[in-house]
Design a protein that fits this description.
The chain is mainly α. It has two domains: about 260 residues, no CATH class; about 60 residues, Zincin-like, CATH 3.30.2010.10. The chain contains 17 helices and four strands. Helix 6 packs antiparallel against helix 7, helix 7 packs across helix 11 and helix 14 packs across helix 16. It is globular and about 65 Å long. The N and C termini lie far apart (about 65 Å). It binds zinc ion.
Length: about 425
C-alpha cells in the first residue's frame, strides 16, 4: 500500500467509524428513552404531567429518527464525493474557466460548499415544516424560510469569499509561516464580527426592540446593578417569527454588550423566573467563562492552522484524494473542513464536560444572586416543558451530545449548593 492509499483508507475509515459510533449512540438513546416511555421517572414527576411527558418522548424519538437519516445521507455523500474524486474534477474544471488565482480558489471553495450543502435544503425544510410543525413549534412561513436562505447565501458570498481569497493570497505571499498570519487574520475577523453581527447582520433576520419600561425592565436593571453587570441595552427579539422554542443570550462584549431576550421566553416565564435566567447568564460572565471559551477556541484554531500548514507542505494528502501535487492550498482547506469532524467527534465528551461545569457554576451564581433555587428551577422546568426536552437521555449519549447537564442533575446541584453554603447568597 502506498502512503496515498494508506491516507485515503485511514480518512474513510475514520469517517465510517464516527458514523458507526453516532448511530450506535443514537440507538442506545432511543432504547433508553423508550424504556422510560410508559412511566415518568419519579424525580421528573413534578416537571411534566403525563401527557406532556408522553409528547416529549414522541418528540425526542421523532427528532432522533430524523437526525439518524440526515447523518446517514450526509456521511454517504461525503464518502461518495471523496471516492468518486468529484473534488479534484471540479477543481480542474473551475481552474480551466477562472484560472488559479486567490479569488478563483475562493470561488471554487464557495461553489463546492454550496453544492455539498444542497442536500441539507430538503432536510431543513422537512425539519421546519413537518417535524417541528407536528409538535407545534413551527411559526415560520415558506416565504420567510426561502428569504432566510437567500439572505444567508448572499452573506456567505459577500463575507466568506473575500476572507478566503485573503487567506489563499497569504499562502502565496508569505513563506511557510503563512498559517500563523491566516490564524491572526481569522481571529481579528471573529472579534470584528462579534461587534458587527449584532448591529448589521442579526437585524437582517429578526427585529430587535428595547424592552419597554415597566416592572420587568426595572427588575432586570436592578439585578444588573446589584451584580455589577452593566449592558448597553436589554432587547427583545421576535424569535416567535420562526419558532416556539425560547432562549436568552448576550451579544457583543465590553461597551457593545447587549442582553437579548426571546419574546417567546418573556411570554412563558414569570418576572422572577426571567430574572433568574438573566442571573444565570450574568453568572457566565462573572465566572469568566466567556474569555476562557474564547481562549480555547483561539488555541484550537491555532492548532488547526498549524496542522493545515503542515499538511499543505506534504503532497501525500492531495495525491490521496486525487488532486495534483501542486493543486494549491484551497483543496487542503476543503479536505480539512470535510474531515475534521471525524476527529473532533471523539473529543466532544471532554468539551461538553467542561461546558457543563460552567453551567453548574452559572446556576450556583444565579441561585445566590436571586436568593434561592426556586425561581431558576421554576424557569428551567417551564423551559423543559415548553420545549418538550428529553428528560431521560442515556448517559453516554448525553456525554457526546449535551453541552448542558440534564434538568434533574441541575436541580440536584442547585439545592445541594444552596443548602450547603447559604453564606454565598450575596454574590460578589
Ligand atoms: Zn448557561
Amino acid at each position: 500500500m502506498t502512503s496515498s492509499q494508506f491516507i485515503l483508507s485511514l480518512c474513510l475509515g475514520l469517517l465510517v467509524l464516527r458514523w458507526l459510533a453516532a448511530t450506535a449512540l443514537s440507538n442506545l438513546n432511543k432504547r433508553h428513552v423508550q424504556a422510560h416511555a410508559n412511566r415518568i421517572p419519579r424525580e421528573c414527576e413534578e416537571i411534566m404531567d403525563p401527557p406532556t411527558y408522553a409528547r416529549s418522548v414522541e418528540y425526542t424519538l421523532a427528532k432522533a429518527r430524523f437526525g439518524s437519516l440526515e447523518d446517514n445521507v450526509s456521511t454517504a455523500i461525503i464518502i461518495a464525493v471523496l471516492c468518486l474524486k468529484f473534488l479534484p474534477w471540479s477543481q480542474s474544471v473551475w481552474t480551466q474557466s477562472f484560472g488559479s488565482g486567490a479569488w478563483a480558489g475562493a470561488g471554487w471553495l464557495i461553489a463546492v460548499g454550496m453544492i455539498l450543502s444542497l442536500p441539507d435544503i430538503p432536510f431543513s425544510w422537512w425539519s421546519q415544516f413537518r417535524l417541528e410543525d407536528r409538535f407545534g413549534f413551527n411559526r415560520g412561513t415558506p416565504r420567510l424560510w426561502i428569504l432566510d436562505r437567500i439572505k444567508m447565501l448572499a452573506l456567505a458570498l459577500l463575507i466568506a469569499t473575500p476572507l478566503l481569497a485573503l487567506i489563499l493570497d497569504l499562502t502565496r505571499r508569505i513563506g511557510p509561516l503563512w498559517w500563523l498570519w491566516a490564524w491572526a487574520l481569522l481571529i481579528g475577523f471573529q472579534l470584528l464580527m462579534m461587534i458587527v453581527a449584532p448591529i448589521f447582520i442579526l437585524p437582517l433576520f429578526n427585529k430587535f426592540t428595547p424592552l419597554p419600561d415597566g416592572s420587568l425592565r426595572d427588575r432586570l436593571i436592578r439585578l444588573g446593578q446589584r451584580t455589577g453587570f452593566t449592558a448597553k441595552t436589554i432587547q427583545v427579539v421576535d424569535g416567535s417569527k420562526r419558532s416556539g422554542h425560547s432562549n436568552a443570550y448576550f451579544t457583543g462584549f465590553g461597551r457593545f454588550r447587549k442582553i437579548v431576550l426571546f419574546d417567546t421566553l418573556i411570554s412563558q416565564l414569570t418576572e422572577s423566573e426571567l430574572e433568574a435566567v438573566l442571573a444565570h447568564e450574568i453568572g457566565h460572565y462573572k465566572r469568566g467563562h466567556l474569555p476562557r471559551m474564547l481562549a480555547w477556541s483561539t488555541l484550537s484554531l491555532l492548532a488547526s492552522f498549524a496542522l493545515i500548514g503542515w499538511l499543505a507542505e506534504r503532497p501525500e494528502l492531495l495525491l490521496a484524494f486525487g488532486f495534483q501535487a501542486n493543486a494549491g492550498f484551497a483543496p487542503v482547506l476543503l479536505l480539512f473542513g470535510l474531515l475534521s469532524g471525524a476527529f473532533t467527534f471523539w473529543f466532544s465528551p471532554l468539551t461538553h464536560f467542561w461546558s457543563r461545569k460552567h453551567e453548574y457554576e452559572a446556576d450556583a451564581y444565579a441561585v445566590a444572586a436571586v436568593g434561592g433555587p426556586s425561581a431558576l428551577s421554576g424557569a428551567l422546568r417551564k423551559l423543559h416543558e415548553k420545549n418538550l426536552s428529553n428528560l431521560t437521555p442515556h448517559p453516554l449519549f448525553s456525554a457526546f451530545h449535551y453541552s448542558h447537564p440534564t434538568l434533574v442533575e441541575r436541580e440536584h446541584s442547585m439545592s445541594r449548593g444552596f443548602s450547603a453554603s447559604p453564606s454565598t447568597s450575596t454574590p460578589t
